[in-house]
Every structure is written in structure tokens, then in C-alpha cells.
């Protein structure tokens, strides 16, 4: 073994510099962060040959005193930190006092600076970290630092530099982030003599987004603003339909610092769950602001990662703020608040600890009124009870289900309500087998059960849809006024749908798939009936606290599955039970199915079970498996494109879409498409 000896300071400096200065973009980052910390309102960045030829950063900040110029280039020399205690409350972007030392160690640096109020400025030249003489010089107020011949004295690093174009692209991306992080500062970026970015510095994030990321991106954004306790979240997220192919457009700032964070990504994406197409990712420019004492920025040499003291709170703040913002958008019509929101279903997702209600009422105070979360069967719910108890009881769930069933024209031959099943050993709570905590289920009181209304028969078919009517009378009159629909009529303890808006007129259905409607404000809506119903089913299943109702098959079905599928399902019989399938081993991989969920066509039994097996095989976590099973159930129970639908079914779907409860199918596809009068007139060259 060679002898151990301490490295000389020059080699030590080069090693330290390597940690901070990895490539030209790291130099730009450090210099611009210094400019921001110096209180500048305008920063100009110029690079040549991807920064390998030259990097120049000019600011109009506070400048450096001539006497302190050489000190600024020493390692661990900083004006931003004094004591150990200061480390726990860093409010500046820089604090390590290493950047200027590191940059000058591996390049040739010139600095020209003048402090405000000083008649004269000063300049200094450094080569490989060795400073020359500080000289008096005329200079504009602020600081200009020029870095040439980066890595000229570290051939090993030089060898690994990528093409100039790759370095230019890296600096370009960085400049976008820096510009977005401080909309109050005007940033100009010039690459090889050509201006590539200019932000106005007017303090508006929207202006910075427009300038840095382009008009197309800016157009599809949804503003986000909210706070939870001392954590506030603001910025923009992409509309669910504008999902992107990668996460590259997820830009997060914490106290004005661009960072990469799996936590924030997870919180953002959780907000889009079931609203965005598979394989698509939301984009965002999100700024999280929290007390400097609640975040540790000293965890990464390049300061691109942080550690939050209260990760759960940060997650909740981002998640709920994004969710609220998405709720408000994409709604076909402003959803009138019909009743207080139900408590969100308790999800034990990654880092999620607070439900939406708690967030909004307690810790979280969104700056805008909290929207009502969609809840299944709003118009059929016994609103008084729900409002009082804040809980969906089993009784209500059952009634909703049966009423909804009849509303959608289903009359299963034999329905086994979960209550009967509960007499024997109580059915496990719906989600427990997949790691969800059992939901507390209020057992129905005997009187309640006696009072339970019999679900009405499907509504009679209003003639307007079956037989096309002549032109609709003006002023706007809905084709099927909701009051004519029996399904919303006078069930004891239930209130009818209270739509403050005029219900959309259903003009008809085309291709047995799309419902055409007209809204009072003169827009035409096309609704995909399967997608809408699938979403309604999905939300219902997800929010339910009980297994779905079942139908006992007169003749049990022997489901012949592949051996693999059969074995997998047999291992998960309790789970199937929770989803409404009563099955047993029939030997040879086959399952004997005695009961199926009431909403599912018995003919779909085998295909549903096959899809279940696929969900169980491919789901990466219990949570994902559960979601996928719910998707399958929701899809199978939905009316299909191509089916002949009862007008009463269509009315229910249209009302849901109009209310804004249903926007996207669980796979993120839109449920409704809007055509304005202007758009139509343009198509016909009238406008
Ligand atoms: P840090 O930013 O971590 O303090 P640096 O090595 O980046 O360390 O900078 C050292 C010091 O030089 C800073 O603390 C600051 O006082 C001063 N400085 C650097 N750049 C500028 C600038 N553009 N304007 C004013 N002061 C600057
Ligand atoms: Mg610095």
C-alpha cells in the first residue's frame, strides 16, 4: 500500500471544484444564483460554444466592495452565513461560499463590479484560482463575471464534455428554470450572439411562463393557488388533456430554488390520478413556499435537492391544491354547489395523511372557495342525513345503489343486498384485503331498514328523444325536464336534483354512442355515454364503503380460465368476494361462479375475471391493483357505445356531465366535447 498523505490544497481545490462545477450549466447556475441573491432586477447571461468558449453573467445587483473581491474567491467565503444556527434557516440561494472558488479553480475568470453609491468599481483577473491584482475600474452598478476556458487545467473533465450543442441545451433549460423561479427579475439569455430568452420581469409568473416555455405550453395551463398551514403552493399545471410524454416539464421551486423532488412529483401526479391518460404525465410550474426553518437545503452539492421537515404536510399541500385547481377546470359548466362535500375516501396513498376536508378546514386554507368534490349519486342521496353525519352510511349506500340501478334501467333478476350477507359473519370491509383500512360502516338500524324505500321502476320514456321533435321551442326549454323523471321524484328522505342552471336540452343520440345536447348559453355538447357512465361507476365504486350488490346466478357459471389466471384468482377469492364475485374452485383452473356483481352482465363474467387476473398480475402495488380492479368493474358495468340506451339513462348522464361531476373517464379520456356557436359558425363560414 502506498503511504497515506494529505493532498496539497491545489489538488484538493480541484476535487472540490469538480463537485460544484460539473459542466458549463453548473457555472451559469452558480453565477445567476449569486446575481439573484445580490438583489438584481435584470440579469443577462451570454454563452459561446455551449459555455466552453465563454460564459458571461451581468447583473445590476448590489456589487462587491473592491477590498472583498479576492475574499469572494476563497473557499468557504460567503456573506450569506455566519453561524451554525444560520444553516438551519437559509433564505438565499447560495450559502456554501464555494462557487466562485470552484469556478475560478478550473477556468480563467474576470470580474468587474461596482457597488451602489460608489464612484468607482473594481476588476480582478484570476487564472486557475490564482488571483491577480484588484484594479480600480469604471463599471456600471452591479457585477459582471466572465468565465473563459473552462476546465483548461483539468483535462480529465474536459475529455468528458459533451458536444457544444448538448451543453447549450443544458444551459438553455437551466435559464428557463431560473427565469421561471423569479418572475420579478428580467432574464436575457444570449447564445452565440443570438437572443434565446427574454423575460419581462414584471412579477407575473404567467409572463415568465409565456416567455420561457412558449405560447402553446402556456395556453394549456391551469392556475393553481392554495395553502395549507404555513405552506403555500402557487403556479400552473397542465390541463389533464394536455398530458405530456415525459416528466421533463415538471418544474418545481421551493422558496425560489429550482429543485428536483420525487415527493413533489408524486403529490402532483396523485392530483391527476384517474384524470390523465395512461403513459402521460402532467407538466407544471409550481412554487412551494414555506418557512426557511422547515426545509433543509444543505443536502446536495449542487443544491438541487432539499429535505422537508414535514414531508406529509408538503405532500398534502401540493396534492390538494392541484386537485382543487383541476376540479375547477374542465367542468363543462360551473357546477353549482349542491351540498356539502362528503369526506374524501380514506386513501392510504404514498405520503397522504390528510383528507381533503381536513386540509381545507383545518390546516389548509385554499385562497379560493373549496369546490365540491364529485360524489356518487348526488341527487339521490339523502342529503340531510349525509350533511349531518358527514358519512355515507351503509343504508344510504344501498339505497343509492338500488335507486341508481333503476335510474339506469337495470333490474337484475335476483339481487342479494349486502345487508343480508352481513347477518352471517360480517363481510370484510371492501378495501381491507388490499391494504386499505376497513372503513367504518354504520350498521343500519332495524327501523331504518323497514323504512327503506323500494326503488322506483325505470322512468317512463319521454317521447321527445325517441321521436325527434320539430325545432325546440324558444326560449330554451329542456327536452326532458328533470321533474318529469320519476327517478328523481319524491323518494322518502331524498331530495331531487337541484340544478340551479337550466338543464341541457338533449337533442338526440348519434352512432348509439354520443349524446348531443344544447346548453342554455348556446353551446353544443357531445357526450360519450360509455365514458361518462364508466366514470360515474368508478367514482361510485371508489367511494363506496360496502361491497357492491350481487346477483345470484340461477345457473352457476363454470369459468374456464387459463391455469395461471385460475390459480391467481383462487389465491384471491376473498378479494373477488369483496368485488361482488362468489366463486369456488372447480378444478383444473376453472372457477365456479355463483354470484356476480349486480351491475355486471352475467355474460361478461369470464371476461371480467380474466381482466381481474390481469390486474392482479400487473399491478405493482396493492393500491394500483385496487385501482385497476375498480377500472375493470366500472367499465364492465357501464353502458356501452352501440347499445340502445333508455332516454332516462341518457338524462342522468347528461345531468352529471352538466354539473361538472364527470369530466374524464378513469383512463383520462374526455367525457364531453364542447362546440361553441362561434366554432360552428366558423365551420360553416358564417363567422
Ligand atoms: P455563496 O453564494 O455560497 O455565498 P459564492 O462563492 O457563490 O458563495 O460567492 C461568494 C460571495 O461573493 C457571496 O457570498 C457574495 O457575497 C459575493 N458575490 C458573488 N457573486 C456576487 C454578485 N453577482 N453580486 C454581489 N455579490 C456577489
Ligand atoms: Mg453562490
TrEMBL record:
Bias-annotated ranges (Polar residues):
389-405, 413-424
Q: Which InterPro entries match?
A: DNA_mismatch_repair_CS (IPR014762), DNA_mismatch_repair_MutL (IPR020667), DNA_mismatch_S5_2-like (IPR013507), HATPase_C_sf (IPR036890), MutL/Mlh/PMS (IPR002099), MutL/Mlh/Pms-like (IPR038973), MutL_C (IPR014790), MutL_C_dimsub (IPR042120)
Record's superkingdom? Bacteria
- Kindly give the PROSITE patterns that the UniProt entry links to this protein: DNA_MISMATCH_REPAIR_1
Every MutL C-terminal dimerisation domain range: 506-645
Cite a single GO MF annotation.
Answer: ATP hydrolysis activity
Asked whether the UniProt record includes Iron among its keywords, one would answer no
**Residue ranges of the region described as Disordered:** 388-460
Entry keyword Manganese = no
Matches recorded under SMART domains: DNA_mis_repair, MutL_C
Recorded hits in SUPFAM superfamilies, A to Z, give: ATPase domain of HSP90 chaperone/DNA topoisomerase II/histidine kinase, DNA mismatch repair protein MutL, Ribosomal protein S5 domain 2-like
GO biological process terms on file: mismatch repair
Which Pfam families would you find in this protein's record? DNA_mis_repair, HATPase_c_3, MutL_C
Per the record, its GO cellular-component terms are:
mismatch repair complex
Q: Which Gene3D superfamilies does the record match to this protein?
A: 3.30.230.10, Histidine kinase-like ATPase, C-terminal domain (3.30.565.10), MutL, C-terminal domain, dimerisation subdomain (3.30.1540.20), MutL, C-terminal domain, regulatory subdomain (3.30.1370.100)
DNA mismatch repair protein S5 domain: from which residue to which, for each copy? Answer: 209-327
Q: What keywords are assigned to this protein?
A: DNA damage, DNA repair, Endonuclease, Hydrolase, Nuclease
The UniProt similarity line reads: Belongs to the DNA mismatch repair MutL/HexB family.
**Which NCBIfam families does the record cross-reference, listed alphabetically?**
mutl
The protein's job, in short, is: This protein is involved in the repair of mismatches in DNA. It is required for dam-dependent methyl-directed DNA mismatch repair. May act as a 'molecular matchmaker', a protein that promotes the formation of a stable complex between two or more DNA-binding proteins in an ATP-dependent manner without itself being part of a final effector complex.
Please report the name of this protein according to its UniProt entry: DNA mismatch repair protein MutL
Starting at the broadest rank, the lineage of the source organism is: Bacteria, Bacillati, Bacillota, Clostridia, Eubacteriales
Q: Which gene encodes it?
A: mutL
Amino acid at each position: 500500500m502506498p503511504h497515506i498523505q494529505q493532498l496539497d490544497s491545489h489538488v484538493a481545490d480541484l476535487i472540490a471544484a469538480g463537485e460544484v462545477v460539473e459542466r458549463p450549466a453548473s457555472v451559469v447556475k452558480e453565477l445567476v444564483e449569486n446575481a439573484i441573491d445580490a438583489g438584481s432586477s435584470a440579469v443577462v447571461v451570454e454563452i459561446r460554444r455551449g459555455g466552453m468558449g465563454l460564459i458571461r453573467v451581468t447583473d445590476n445587483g448590489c456589487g462587491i466592495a473592491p477590498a472583498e473581491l479576492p475574499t469572494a474567491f476563497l473557499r468557504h467565503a460567503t456573506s450569506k452565513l455566519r453561524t451554525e444556527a444560520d444553516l438551519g434557516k437559509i433564505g438565499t440561494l447560495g450559502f456554501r461560499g464555494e462557487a466562485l472558488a470552484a469556478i475560478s479553480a478550473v477556468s480563467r475568470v474576470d470580474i468587474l463590479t461596482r457597488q451602489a453609491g460608489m464612484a468607482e468599481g473594481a476588476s480582478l483577473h484570476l487564472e486557475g484560482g490564482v488571483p491577480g491584482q484588484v484594479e480600480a475600474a469604471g463599471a456600471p452598478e452591479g457585477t459582471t463575471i466572465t468565465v473563459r476556458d473552462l476546465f483548461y487545467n483539468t483535462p480529465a473533465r474536459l475529455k468528458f464534455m459533451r458536444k457544444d450543442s448538448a451543453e447549450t441545451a443544458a444551459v438553455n433549460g437551466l435559464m428557463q428554470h431560473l427565469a421561471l423561479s423569479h418572475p420579478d427579475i428580467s432574464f436575457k439569455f444570449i447564445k452565440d450572439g443570438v437572443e434565446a430568452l427574454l423575460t419581462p420581469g414584471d412579477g407575473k409568473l404567467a409572463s415568465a411562463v409565456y416567455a420561457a416555455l412558449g405560447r402553446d405550453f402556456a395556453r394549456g395551463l391551469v392556475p393553481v393557488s392554495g395553502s395549507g398551514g404555513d405552506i403555500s403552493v402557487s403556479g400552473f399545471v397542465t390541463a389533464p388533456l394536455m398530458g405530456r410524454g415525459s416528466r421533463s416539464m415538471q418544474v418545481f421551486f421551493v422558496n425560489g430554488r429550482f429543485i428536483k423532488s420525487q415527493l413533489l412529483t408524486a403529490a402532483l401526479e396523485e392530483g391527476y390520478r384517474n384524470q390523465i391518460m395512461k403513459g402521460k404525465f402532467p407538466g407544471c410550474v409550481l412554487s412551494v413556499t414555506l418557512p426557511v426553518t422547515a426545509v433543509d437545503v444543505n443536502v446536495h452539492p449542487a443544491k438541487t435537492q432539499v429535505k422537508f421537515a414535514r414531508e406529509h404536510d408538503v405532500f398534502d399541500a401540493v396534492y390538494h391544491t392541484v386537485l382543487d385547481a383541476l376540479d375547477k377546470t374542465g367542468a363543462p359548466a360551473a357546477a353549482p354547489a349542491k351540498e356539502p362535500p362528503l369526506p374524501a375516501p380514506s386513501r392510504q396513498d404514498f405520503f397522504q395523511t390528510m383528507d381533503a376536508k381536513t386540509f381545507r378546514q383545518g390546516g389548509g386554507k385554499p385562497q379560493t372557495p373549496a369546490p365540491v368534490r364529485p360524489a356518487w349519486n348526488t341527487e339521490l342521496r339523502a342529503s340531510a342525513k349525509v350533511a349531518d353525519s358527514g358519512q355515507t352510511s351503509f343504508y344510504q349506500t344501498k339505497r343509492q345503489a338500488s335507486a341508481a340501478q333503476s335510474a339506469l334501467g337495470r333490474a337484475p333478476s335476483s339481487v342479494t343486498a349486502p345487508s343480508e350477507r352481513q347477518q352471517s359473519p360480517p363481510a370484510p370491509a371492501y378495501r381491507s384485503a388490499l391494504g386499505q383500512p376497513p372503513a367504518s360502516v354504520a350498521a343500519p338500524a332495524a327501523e331504518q331498514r323497514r323504512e327503506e324505500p323500494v326503488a322506483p321502476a325505470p322512468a317512463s320514456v319521454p317521447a321527445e328523444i325517441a321521436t325527434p321533435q320539430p325545432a325546440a321551442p324558444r326560449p330554451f326549454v329542456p327536452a326532458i325536464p328533470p321533474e318529469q323523471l320519476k327517478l328523481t321524484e319524491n323518494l322518502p328522505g331524498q331530495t331531487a336534483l337541484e340544478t340551479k342552471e337550466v338543464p341541457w336540452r338533449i337533442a338526440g343520440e348519434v352512432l348509439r354512442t354520443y349524446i348531443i345536447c344544447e346548453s342554455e348559453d348556446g353551446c353544443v355538447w357531445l357526450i360519450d355515454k360509455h365514458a361518462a357512465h364508466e366514470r360515474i361507476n368508478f367514482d361510485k365504486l371508489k367511494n363506496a364503503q360496502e361491497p357492491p350488490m350481487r346477483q345470484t346466478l340461477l345457473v352457476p357459471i363454470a369459468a374456464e380460465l387459463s391455469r395461471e389466471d385460475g390459480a391467481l384468482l383462487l389465491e384471491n377469492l376473498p378479494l373477488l368476494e369483496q368485488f361482488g364475485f362468489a366463486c369456488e374452485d372447480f378444478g383444473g383452473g376453472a372457477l365456479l361462479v355463483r354470484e356476480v356483481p349486480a351491475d355486471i352482465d352475467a355474460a361478461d363474467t369470464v371476461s371480467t375475471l380474466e381482466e381481474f387476473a390481469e390486474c392482479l398480475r400487473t399491478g405493482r402495488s396493492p393500491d394500483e391493483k385496487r385501482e385497476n380492479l375498480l377500472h375493470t368493474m366500472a367499465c364492465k358495468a357501464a353502458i356501452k357505445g352501440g347499445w340502445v340506451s333508455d332516454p332516462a339513462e341518457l338524462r342522468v348522464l347528461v345531468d352529471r356531465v352538466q354539473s361538472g361531476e364527470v369530466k374524464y373517464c378513469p383512463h383520462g379520456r374526455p367525457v364531453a366535447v364542447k362546440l361553441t356557436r362561434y366554432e360552428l359558425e366558423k365551420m360553416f363560414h358564417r363567422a
